[in-house]
Amino acid sequence: MSLAEMLEQGQIQKVESTKKTTRRVQMELGEEDFRRLLALKEVNAAKNYSDVLKEALRLYDFILSEEFQGSKFYTKEKDGELVRIRIFK
């Protein structure tokens, strides 16, 4: 279940509501974060930074939704060992 669905069902609380379909967001990034954004744009052949950030938000939404539902995340090492990833503390 996504965060949007959880909001709709009242499982988590809304902070604010908006009727506008799009919003302009201005942000400041440090040099390292900007390099990360640029690299993600290039690796994913994204048209613009907005597309990178939208995809990042989609992934962040998925991860938070799964965490709220009690899911755990693992990575499989080259030797086949499963290692738990602690994304949030």
Descriptive account of the structure:
- With 89 residues, the chain is mainly alpha-helical.
- It has one domain.
- Helix content is 44%, strand content 9%.
- A two-stranded antiparallel sheet has the order 1-2.
- α2 crosses α3.
> How can the largest sheet be summarized?
2 strands, antiparallel
So what's the oligomer here?
single chain
SSE series: HHHEE
User: What average pLDDT do the residues reach?
Assistant: 86
Q: Round the Cα radius of gyration to an integer and report it.
A: 17 Å
Task: Give the secondary structure arrangement, pairings included.
Layout (H helix, E strand, L loop, with lengths): L2 H6 L22 H13 L5 H20 L4 E4 L5 E4 L4
Antiparallel strand pairs: 1-2
Helix pairs in contact: 2-3
